[in-house]
Amino acid sequence: MAIDITQIQLSDADRKLLAEVAEATGKPWSEVLTAALTGLRQQAATQPESTGGPAESVFDRLQRAGLLGCLSGGPSDLSTNPAYLEGFGENDRSIGSR
After folding, report:
1. 57: in domain
2. CA-CA distance, 27 to 36, in Å (whole number)?
3. Residue 96 burial by Cβ neighbours in a 10 Å radius (0-12, 13-18, 19+)
4. How far apart are CA 35 and CA 22, in angstroms?
5. How far apart are CA 96 and CA 98, in angstroms?
6. Contacts for 27 with CB less than 8 Å, ≥ 6 apart
7. Termini Cα distance of the chain
8. CA pseudo-torsion sign 47, 53, 57, 61
């Protein structure tokens, strides 16, 4: 079912802007609106909670990028082997004096 553009409540300035973008891109106004709404939805999904959108964690971003579990040949869990924690938390002043 087609929707008449006059049925959407837009200011005259917004209608003019929509027409200009549609003409400049060579796309119908409905495609321009769809692209704009899709972009806003994606932007809202990646914004921190302080701006109203859900926050994406570092884990989520790394998982989306395929970076989780991408290393091979290393220890599976550093926290289970005390040898890997040797010296952790000690104050090594020799590093800063080099």
Report:
1. yes
2. 13
3. exposed
4. 11
5. 6
6. 35
7. 74
8. negative
- Determine the structural domain holding residue 56 and report its residue range: 5-69
The answer to whether residue 54 is domain-embedded is yes
87: CB partners within 8 A, 6+ apart:
none
DSSP 2: -
Question: Is-contact 88 94, C-beta < 8 A?
Answer: no
Residue 89 belongs to a domain: no
Q: State the total domains in the chain.
A: 1
Contact 62, 56 (CB under 8 A): no
- Please tell me whether the overall predicted TM-score, pTM, comes out greater than 0.85 for this model: no
Give the tens place of pLDDT for each residue, 49-68. Answer: 555 556 778 888 888 888 87
Q: Is 74 a member of any domain?
A: no
| CB-based contact 30:3 (threshold 8 Å) | yes
Structure tokens at 17: 């802007």
